[in-house]
Amino acid sequence: MRCTYLEQLLNKNTVRQIGRDVRQTSDCKVTDADLQDYFKTLSTLLADPQYLQHDPSAIIACTRLSDLQNDRMSFEELGKLLKEVNQTLEEAKKTGKRFSEMAENTLSKHLQKLDATNQLGLKRLKKKTTVGEQRLHSKTKVGEHRLERKTQFGAQRIVGLKRLKKKTTVGEQRLHSKTKVGEHRLERKTQFGAQRIESRTQYGEQRIEEKTNDADQCIDSKVHDGTQRIEISVQHGIERMQQAANKTAQADERDEADFRRRLVEHYNDTSSNVPLSVLDQSLDKRITDIYATPKMHRFDKASDGKRVKKEQVLTYKELFYTNDTKSNRRVYVQGEPGSGKSTFAAKLVHDWCDENQPSTAVPNKNASFDDVLIIQNFPFIFFLSLGESRGQTEVTHMIKKQIIDTMYSEEKRDVMYTLLLKIIETEICLVIRDGLDEWVAPDGSNLAEPSMAGFSKDKCVVLTTSRPWKLADERIKNSRIDILVEIEGISDSYTFSKRVLRCILDKSKDLKTTAREIRSFIEKRRLTWLSNSPMLYTLVICTWVDTMEEEEHLNGSSLCALYTTFLESLCKKANDTIGFFNDLNPPHVKCFSRTSYLRPIIQNVDVISKAAFNLLFSPEKEKSIVFNDQELSNYLTPSEQEFALKAGLISKRKTKRALNSSISFIHKSMQEFLAAYHIAHNARLIDDVISAYLGCHSNAYLDISQVFIFLCGLSVSAANTLSGIIHEHDSKIIDARGVPLLSLEQDDFQSIIEAGYREAVSNDQTGILLRLSHFNIGGDNLIDIYNIWRENKSNVLSLEIHVYDETDRAIHSSATHSEPTSQVEFDLSSCPNLKYLVLFGSGIQIQDSSSSVSSTRPVCIVLKSANPVQCADPQPVLPCIKHIAFYRIRCSSTWLRSLLSTLLTLDHYVTYQLTKCYITSCKEDAVRWADTETGATLLSFKDTLSLSNDYVSDSLGLWEALHGLNIKSLSLSLKVKYADSMSKSLLSLTHLDTLNLKVINNGPGLWEALCGLNIKSLNLSFGYSCLSVYYSDSMSQSLSSLTQLDTLSIELNILCLWEALHGLNIKSLSLSGMFLHLNVKYADSMSQSLASLTQLDTLSIELNGQSPGLWEALRGLNIKSLNLSVQYGCFTVEHADSIAQSLSSLKQLETLSIYFWTYIDIKLPQSLKHLNSYCMTLLPYKLRELVDTLSACTQTIESNLDFCCASLDDTTLTFKRIPPEEYIVVKKELEMLKNVEVKRFQILDRTRQTNVYDDDDTASDWSVRGIGGVHDDTEDDNVNDVAYKNFVRGMSNTIINRISMRLLITPSSNS
């Protein structure tokens, strides 16, 4: 027994010694030899046969020790071990915490017990004291009663009383003494109890403190030991974790490499081979065998938002980089259907997958897109078909569905999806989104394109292919497009033909000969545009090869004919029974009449076409192109579906769902052709279905444009109806958006109508009446658009023609006409609704209807209207025209005069711009002048014409065009070069009443041109310093010759030619100018001139500078009306006396209109009857002063007052708002006056567009706030007042309140 105990003790000491040896090292590390020795010792102890061999904990410990020794312990087990260590530490902490809580509870209980004991002692002491007091009080009472009785009974005995008193005194003393003794004893006992309680409390606190300290030391010791053990375990764990992390990183690299390898294999299976023809999807070839260089151009974003076509793109570097440094992260490739967008994307993926490409390959400068190293720099490329992901919004989900779910089994998909999320955050990726136009966002989503959430913006490059109309969506901002390129088919169609033929042509046929025959056929039929669509081009080649042995190859350039051939070829695969349409069984459409295989299966074609229509025009757009079995079963029976699948009209692909498939037509254009065929023999669908479809979707006509083009070739009557509905919907959208008539949207609509017209002509359709209102005509579409215009003359709203070439006759030919046309003629008089007319280019001839000279230019413009010289009442033409623009146009002065004569009869404004035009003379005896460019802007309204060309001199042709026009008011702003011609033209204007002339230059010829005119009103405006003193005589003679002149208005900068005004018989004179001011030295000259105007009745002066001599010059005039407009700083208090003296000298003055910034008190003449005062700032007390001044007059005065509710800071020249309510108080005071009648009091308000008070900020229109009790039905005549106009024009936008008043003031004596 003794040996056994020593052995156990030895085992325990050995284990403890090992623990101490490890803990006492500085870094908790041991040598390999010591570690092996520790392992051996611990294993021996744990395997003790007597005590530990069968112990479960020892067995587990021994197993773990063996795993740790042989490095077999997994990362999870090590983590579990560390977790157990951590739990041990947590339990130790919890034990210490529980011990502390127990100590606190014990101390709290003892304190509570001590407090209770203390309270009990106090209660007992208090109780005894109370009892003693009660007993003492009781005995005192008894003694008093007894004493009283004895006193009563012994009142007669004096001795007895004394003895009783003595005994009573002795009793009180004894009782008091006993009470004192009791109190002392009670106090001593209380003190003794308190001391014992205090002693016991101190003893308890000492014991608690000792136990607490012991517990803290124990806890600290255990925590220290546990911490050391944890640190050792954590250190080992970190080392194991680092090893595991390295293994994990290596595993991730292997997973990524495996993922990349699988991607390459996936793309090699799905993308590196492309179908040779859409007629047979199974006949596919390596993309390198048939791929041809695309014709691709870059588009730039102009400042106005337009996209401008730039240079050709030939390398991947040009596509993905700008200026060799900036990476294009968002690349957009647009193109029309079948242009090769998807093939280009597939070729890009193939170049990335091509592992045989040497890493040091040098790009071939003669090849296109051979710099494949640019592509191979992307570690990962994800190629997605958006048409297969309709309704999905996240690109990551699309990758999982289209790529991961295809490459991996179901149990591995989630793991690989997690790897994908890591790759897109850390690796540089290229995401190819093919077919954005085929993707539809789910209901309720406003996304224009799928979300790239999860991708790192600085590591992800996105290449998106789409049709152009999709990228015109306003939600796709220009700022989000780093580069936009457009694929326009193939660059070398002949090489492409040879590539395709090499894959399908029988070896017995000569490849070059066949390629040349196909090229000749395409050129002869004008099908070279097919190079823009490799898909259609391939179909033509394949159909050509398939029918080489037949007598007749493809015929015509009609899309309907081509697609009829495609349809027949496909249907023949399902049923090769021959059958023909005839008179007894005519076809629904003309292009089916020559087929051999459609008649027996026409019912199948009809139901498939109906399905194509219903699906294409489905309210749910996401189901229009790609649909499932259930949706297709609504239109096709199982047997009909089987026929469509066998024929290849539809294709079915299995999806992730077992019960459904992804179904679509072989190509969207085939679905559109079949839908158009269904509409052709069910025209009611246009009103029943298509009209509603157009109303539900914005720009829906772009979606159905190809359907419309097919319909034009199949049934032009139905196409005519559809074009009218599309035109109506398009016009409503444009009106709602406020889009200008000449816009890109109109160009899109015209392109559709133009393509439809060509298709109708190619199919020998008659009665083509396609609706179009906006025409944009160029050399490439001249004939076709002209033919459309001829059937829409009454519908034309805008006409824009661009023909620059005068001699090239190639532009006269049309794709729909085999023979060229020499010339087309546009008769504008046949367009009664025309609003916009724009003519550009020297290839346009303006033809006089009266001229016998034939035009030699491609386009001839005719305006058949009567000559105003020969016909006094010409019939109006172009009654709706609003804007005309000519650029580099040659026309005769006679034709221009006829046009202007027409415009002068219209009751709305018309703008007419001439830019670099040539105006020739048609007079037989006229001296031919050299051609000079004419530039001018004309504005007409009824019999008023305004002409300006501030930067270009006048021309002889322009003056001849004005000759003899019925003009009452003419405004001219120009540099006068041909004064003689100007004079003749002005003299010929017999109805001219008002002439406004702004002269850029000055000379004697100008004044000679004005001599002898019968005008009544003349307004002269001169440029700075252009009125020279040297021409004062010419000016004087010219003005004197105007015998009918009664109104003269002169606007100039330096007024120094007063002599020229001397003695005129004018009744009204207006003087103004930007820098007009009057010095004292000119006062006498001005005074003499004004005094000589004996008929002068009205004088208006607008001052913009200090004019101290003005008031002297006005003295003594016999005028009845004076209108003064004084700008800021020109009218100060210093002038008050001069003004008062001048005004008082105007004995005949009845009306005074004055506009000034700040009110100044002035004395008014006694003859004054009407005062119109306009003030920019009028304080309320100043308004009272003004009314007081008017009340002091001895005559009745009617006054119009308009002023702003604001004050002016002279330092900053800013306005401060005054509440209008302050003026209402003044108004009420005025109403109390007997001699003042307030006939009008209106507050006018307006709002500002922003809260920032910027003078350039715009403000709304004025609104009148009604004030009760004041009614004024009198119409204002101050709207034509010059001072009022200047007041309104000079008002700052910062002013938002003003007041308009009308007062009638009578003399106080009369009241």
TrEMBL record:
One Pfam family linked to the record: NACHT
Molecular-function GO terms, alphabetical: ATP binding
Q: Which PANTHER family match?
A: NACHT DOMAIN-CONTAINING PROTEIN, NUCLEOTIDE-BINDING OLIGOMERIZATION DOMAIN-CONTAINING PROTEIN 2-LIKE
Q: Which UniProt keywords apply?
A: ATP-binding, Nucleotide-binding
Gene3D superfamilies tied to this protein: P-loop containing nucleotide triphosphate hydrolases, Ribonuclease Inhibitor
Please list the residue ranges annotated as the NACHT domain: 329-438
Keyword flag ATP-binding = yes
| Species per Swiss-Prot/TrEMBL record | Dreissena polymorpha (Zebra mussel)
Annotated signal peptide? none
Protein name (Swiss-Prot/TrEMBL): NACHT domain-containing protein
